[in-house]
Amino acid sequence: ARDRSERAFGMGFVKLMNADGTTLQDGKHNLIVYKGDNKKMEDARSYLTLPCTKTEMEEKEAPSGKNLHPLANFTPSKDSTKDSFQISTVICSTKLTQNVDLLGLLNWRSNAPNIAHNLRKLMEVEGGEIVKFLPDTLDALFNIMMEMSENETYDFLVFDALVFIISLIGDIKFQHFNAVLETYIYKHFSATLAY
Q: What's the pTM value of the predicted model, to 2 decimals?
């Protein structure tokens, strides 16, 4: 606002959500710096279809070896080391996960054919990710037990998942989540069939 003659010389962006519904992975990301028309840079519709990181660009160019996202006023530089911008991210959320298997379980209603698969995969999910979503995970498990009571297969898988979670919280590394589990049991647990 102070100097209207200043113009943006480039722009970069990052997509916080992946196509599979998970969030951006923690770590370093090399963003592509796009150069072009100042007005176009301000309009998100003109660049959100473009790759935002060097990794994404390489994946999209791999099959044909040519740029699949040409746009008149935005061109990523050919010199990969010169025109990039590195950021480091850490996602802190109790609602958005970076793990596709946990996401599959939490959204089990929208993906009913994969319930058994998602229940099995839960036991491969890193413990830190599970405890962040402990109440939601327990809700999902008890809802599966209640709503899929006609299928005995789910009962055993849910039981195994519950034993896995309880033993996980028994681990010294996650012991401070014991209070979260107790609060859930005494204040939020409402699955009459499971009770």
A: 0.65
